[in-house]
Amino acid sequence: MGLMAPLQERLRTTFAGQAEGVPAWELALADGEDAGHFRPGSAVWAVHGSMATIPAGVRALLTQALHPGALAGVVEHSDYRRDPLGRLAGTIRWIFTVTYGDTTAAQRASGHVRRLHESVRGTYTGADGVRRPYCANDPDLTEWVHLAFTDAFLRSHQRWGGPIPGGPDAYVREWAVAGRLMGVVDPPRTEAALEARMRAFGPQLAGGPRVDDVVGFLRRPPLDPLLLPGYRALFAAVVDSLPEERLALLGLRRPRLGPVPLPTRGAAGLTLAVVGRALGQTGPSEAAARRRLRRLGLL
Fold first, then answer.
1. Where do the domains of the chain lie?
2. From which domain of life does this come (predicted)?
3. Disulfide engineering: 63 pairs with which of 38, 80, 148, 223, CB 3.0-4.6 Å?
């Protein structure tokens, strides 16, 4: 483990905000008086417990940025450039609390995010050139963020994860709970419905200078130098996984060496295997949830 220690330290600092120990909020997932929304063997635990969540996060951010209203909220009301790891840590905390916490913790975490979003307001220019007001809690914005998230985690797991209990439909159906917690009206419950709802957003999506800035930032984030080679491999693989219409709006092209496509999928898989070895296959959030389930006699 000696050779992996520097990598492990930097990965933990990136994802958890600290190199040693487990954050208090993760340890608190062992508390609570019910099983939560999901259990071992669920599609959500399978998808969110794999290393494929790392490229999924990048794919989700690229996809979310294509809605001018969602992007305006990020650009105008977040510190993603000055404190990208802080924003990442907040997102990870919400995802894992909903995934592994009891129902009270999931509701509390989602309510906290929605209260923060209430002040995320302004105006944006839509793909049709019309200026519109927005709030991050607006139904169309919360729906787009949920769709982008679900698409990213499902597609990334299909590419780099293992089997999904119940298949893709089970994951979309189960994670609809998170959509409802965040105020999404009637979130999709099948893979086909997810794809149809994303296609319906097509006329509202746009590229442009703001999108270019986000793409440039995600292409070269201020990560520890030890992590950059692996991140570049993951970013290239995420780009290679996106549908053509999204690539066009993002101003991206599939990685190639002249006319030859690069083997991005395998390179990303190798990177994720190394990360998995450094971090371990069972994360502290899942471990805490299992302690709660054992205490309640549910495991």
1. 30-224+283-296
2. Bacteria
3. 148
